[in-house]
Amino acid sequence: NDMSAQVYLRGNEVEEFHIDINNVTKKYTEEAVDYIRRKADQPFFLFLAHSMMHVPIYVSDEFAGKSGAGIYGDAVLEVDWSVGRIMETLRELGLDDNTLVVFTSDNGPVTREARKVYELNLAGETDGLRGRKDNLWEGGIRVPAIIKYGKHLPQGMVSDTPVYGLDWMPTLAKMMNFKLPTDR
User: pLDDT tens, 119-150?
Assistant: First the structure.
């Protein structure tokens, strides 16, 4: 969302050339819900990578000014709404007990310099960890993850064991009894 031109793609085809970047979270959510509904009767994989909280931050009119914590807080509120909408769809379709949901981030919060450039009053905290986004200190790479897998995982379990991003694919493949290729 920080590039000069944004488009919506469907496969390799441009579907929309002039998008309203303020509604990107809403659009991603609508597409995710539609995909879940279309695939509800078969195994599916949905990877939803929200553009928000990446700077510059945008938010739809429905969430603008609602958090009391500036545009960053408003965008967090909208992403929270999005996750809730997706979880609601899974419940409505009876898929929530047999669908693995992982919610995580790709990196820590933006640097203090970026906060100034983008005039962000609030842009994430590292809870005292050294570093931020764009570096390899813990504050830049250690992020929370929430995993829900219906009755397959105990509710309320907390683990402080660090997990490396490259662990996700082999771990999830093993859980799903999916044999990974051995030629790469």
Answer: 666 667 788 888 888 888 888 888 888 889 98
